[in-house]
Amino acid sequence: NAGVTQTPKFQVLKTGQSMTLQCAQDMNHNSMYWYRQDPGMGLRLIYYSASEGTTDKGEVPNGYNVSRLNKREFSLRLESAAPSQTSVYFCASKSPGLAGNTGELFFGEGSRLTVL
Amino acid sequence: AQRVTQPEKLLSVFKGAPVELKCNYSYSGSPELFWYVQYSRQRLQLLLRHISRESIKGFTADLNKGETSFHLKKPFAQEEDSAMYYCALRSFNQAGTALIFGKGTTLSVSS
Prior knowledge:
The complex is a heterodimer of chains A (about 120) and B (about 110). Chain A is mainly beta and about 120 residues long. Chain A is built from no helices and eleven strands. Helix content of chain B is about 0%, strand content about 50%. Chain B has strands spanning about 5, 10-15, 20, 25, 35-40, 45-50, 60, 70-75, 85-95, 95-100, 105-110. The termini of chain B are far apart.
């Protein structure tokens, strides 16, 4: 099992360019998430998807769109990149919880994006 | 508002010293809290959750509802404990469940 796979691992963009970060999980999890990690800001939730066909905004959704293509894949799109979107992006999926408790998040390796 | 506060950006200790990483939360209702850890060049991973009441790698964390805290403790730090530690709070809304993370604390253990 590969777990959660993100591509690309590194990307440099110019302001105004668009790109899509891809994420796939092979654990048959329903819930998937996109976070960004910035120094001094920790991990902030961008968007999440509780199940195939549903998505919802997190704390910092502006400038991003997502697609839950199927149960395995959850992509994050930057339509017009800005320097403020320079960050490390993490995709995660969540295992089902037991006895009503929240499951565990499994993270990808991260995608380092630089916007010039 | 749901919030997780980790007041220390960096905690530096010597090997063998006790460690306490602080975490405070704001949540109306019954909270569910976690500690996640990111070692150098590794993926972010779950360390422990308050519901399990377990000790992982010598770390424990007790939920104190009166003080709204979930501090992570270890009596004797090891160099391999050096990592970034995130406290996280389960957040519910009608769309589903997500985790809200604090800003993280870097633990540096030196010999």
